[in-house]
Design brief:
By secondary structure, this protein is mainly alpha-helical. It has one domain. The chain contains five helices and no strands. Helix 1 runs antiparallel to helix 2, helix 1 packs antiparallel against helix 5 and helix 2 packs antiparallel against helix 3. The radius of gyration is 20 Å and the shape is elongated.
């Protein structure tokens, strides 16, 4: 196995781990925190004993943000996998751009202000739900890229095995 193929396999695995962690974190936030914190912002204010969301989100995003470009480089010669990685990276980039433009500044404000406008907080929660399709699309596409690579590897191994046994 070449270094590029090894890098592709590991980068796709790491990207999937990062993306799946984010799916789980999103579910937790949407099901547990989001129904409660708009009327009780102390739940998301680490200085007041609330959840420090940065401790989870920064490493989870860093993993995916580093692994996806490496995966793209590593699978570039594999047309089928490249298309899926490009789709994953595009979805994820759109998600991150929206997050940096709106969600992070607002979240930092909610985590530090002594009073939070509950209506503004509920709007943030509603808009946050709309990021889920981008995250799910990025995760699905990364998984498909991994599947395409696995299938190609198995097909290649089978054809090599067939050639060896045919001799």
């Amino acid at each position: 196995m070449t270094l590029r193929k090894l890098a592709a396999d590991w980068a796709l695995r790491l990207a999937l781990v990062g993306l799946l962690l984010q799916v789980g974190g999103s579910l937790y936030e949407h099901l547990v925190l989001d129904p409660a914190w708009p009327t009780n912002p102390l739940l998301i204010q680490p200085d007041h004993g609330g959840v420090d969301r940065k401790a989870f989100w920064i490493p989870a995003h860093a993993l995916a943000q580093l692994a996806l470009p490496v995966a793209l480089w590593a699978v570039w010669r594999d047309r089928a996998a490249r298309g899926w990685v490009l789709f994953s990276l595009g979805s994820y980039t759109a998600l991150r751009a929206w997050t940096f433009a709106y969600f992070i500044p607002a979240a930092l404000r909610f985590e530090t202000e002594s009073t939070v406008d509950a209506s503004e907080a509920r709007t943030w929660v509603m808009w946050s739900l709309l990021r889920a399709p981008l995250l799910l699309a990025a995760t699905y596409a990364a998984r498909r890229a991994s599947n395409v690579r696995s299938f190609a590897s198995e097909a290649g191994a089978a054809s090599i095995g067939e050639r060896v046994t045919a001799r």
